[in-house]
Amino acid sequence: MKSIIKILSIACLGAMVSCEDIYDDLNLNEANNQVIYTSEMDFGNRIQVNGTITFGDVSSGVQSRQWSFPEGAVDIIGSDNDTSSTENTVKTVFTSPGEHKVRLQQTYNGNAYVGTDQRGSDLDTTLTITVLDSVALQVQAYLLNPDGSLGEELTLSDNAENEVMAGSFVRYIVSPTGEPSDYVWNTDGGDPGTSEEFVNEFDVRYKKLGTFGFGLYASRERPAGESLVEVENFLKIIPSTEPVILEGAFDANGKISLNFSREMNANTLNPADFIVSIAHDGTDIPATVAAATVDPEEANLVILSLENELIYNDDQVLISYQQGEMATTDGMPADSFSDLPVVFIGTNILENTAFDYSFENSTVDNWPYQWWGAPWDKYQLAISNHQAFDGNNSAAITLEPHGGMIISNADSDNNLITFPAEAGKTYEMGVWVYVEDLGNTPEGAVPPDLRFYWSPNTNWGVGANPAFDAAFPVGEWVYSSVLVEFPASGDYSLNIRGANENNTAPLSIFMDNISLSEARLRP
């Protein structure tokens, strides 16, 4: 019995040896696949000058490789040869800004795959590396002439104390390098006093007397970079001999705020010099100005408080002033004005969305025609810096005779940009418009207008915003608004329709600062 077991064991051992011998001459071919990478491939291969970037070749089946780098622009770390390498991993420093080409030549054991495509055995690949300069700023400052043209250049240095009359505009012009993506402006003493607007021309109106500095911080997220310009005692705002300008009347949490072009003297204010009228749903509401004060933080604002009354978004409010003693801090009296509409401007919901409400960050391609057919395709649209209520740009629109327009704001992939709205709330939808030419609408015909239609759940009965009748002001910025409600909470897009069907001539307008804010309604 024992001998039988030994024989079986030997047989099994022989079988095992025979099985192993089967694979001795088997040829396992390595796959030929191209896989190359850079340490910045997920960020567009963008680096800052003197920044590092690593190149890697982890392809399989490679017989030989050679990296080629631009001469005089690269330092290959750990190598005396800065123009080529045969290593599979190469760490480099780019010392010159600009676009640079890096070439990789590979020879494989056979035809190689690039993704799912099979190519030849010799592959030649070029990578583009964008090397940004360090972030830096060159800033110039100019006094603006009354017509908006550039005037005297100001000395932008510490303790220059350029003398500028109160109420004047200063334009800052920035020449950046290194492609910064964000700005923070510090224009102490000006209007605005701070801003994060990313523009290279920035206008500031100085309304306060005193000496002020200037600051601009620029940054770039990746590759990280920053630069700061800070100037002390740059401007000295002095009394003006020019008339003081009333820039508008606005709601201030139920009170009325008068925005003047420079600081006002609180000791010259008399509530009895002001007359306010309020109408609500066609009914007049008696109102008396009980107090007139200067805003403690912005002395160019005169705040009017009413006797036991507040104003609301669904009111029509007019304010008048019969010239009395009201004057600026430099002694210039304010002129009389009559029946100035009070504008309600709340927190603009569109500011926290990608919707380009102020036309500062979009091109015409981002405002595509919405294919309603004739006559809604008879218009011209441009993003223009010729007129702007705020910032540098506005939408310049010409509606052709008997024509119209239908546009919407879209991203670079032509997806309509949306904003959030809630059911059960009332919103004020507003826009600033500047009419250059009303055209020629026959008397008695329906005048041209703008209307803002949202989608989904469109309310086709929304009112004109505004209607351009014969009495509409020409050559000045005018605010228009309507109250709207959304039937369901969610995200909405906005179609802007311009109608000019009865006009025998073109209608030419500028449009700026579209807004959507929650409304306060009269109880």
TrEMBL record:
Extract the InterPro entries matched here: PKD_dom_sf
Tell me the superkingdom of the source.
Answer: Bacteria
Descriptive protein name: PKD domain-containing protein
